[in-house]
Amino acid sequence: xxxxxxxxxxxxxxxxxxxxxxxxxxxxxxxxxxxxxxxxxxxxxxxxxxxxxxxxxxxxxxxxxxxxxxxxxxxxxxxxxxxxxxxxxxxxxxxxxxxxxxxxxxxxxxxxxxxxxxxxxxxxxxxxxxxxxxxxxxxxxxxxxxxxxxxxxxxxxxxxxxxxxxxxxxxxxxxxxxxxxxxxxxxxxxxxxxxxxxxxxxxxxxxxxxxxxxxxxxxxxxxxxxxxxxxxxxxxxxxxxxxxxxxxxx
Length: 250
Prior knowledge:
It comes from Pseudoalteromonas undina. The chain is of the alpha/beta class.
């Protein structure tokens, strides 16, 4: 498929025009025009680029790309090495941030909810494209039981703040660095909040507002949207797609 056609295909699937983001979504680094072989991963790190070069990929498709608002603009050091490697090997870089978080089927929230048997019911924010979602556990669990389930499914022990004696029925979630939504979740009376990261004040919010909290890792909670997108491209459009998980403990 030609690069422009591929970019349009991704935009049709993820609809980046529907949400305001912190980075450009879509094609970020231009490479070869014909795209057949794709490597997917969470972040466009040097390790992922090196793996794509080894696989002779035509394109890399990630959740965390480049050119974030507020970052240093000079292309030097780490940024120069990454972009230089992409240009030297004529590899396209496509990145989708919030559009991949919120997609109702292949998005990070939807995929994580499916893995943990959470039924998403609505957005947590009072907007059309809420980044955080809320719903309920298909089978109510105690906080300890839910933490154990997270550890088993994601292969990572979550940071937890279990402050309630009752089982968790209702739950809100936002993959990645969504810890700031805990207060909104508490305001809406949900039993628990799940995200990727925690800040110092997050635990106080959990304790003082009587809401169980789980931080399961930024990387660990955001592996599954980009993987699902790659699987869709392979199944429905015939691309040769490899998901490469560059482990990250954060």
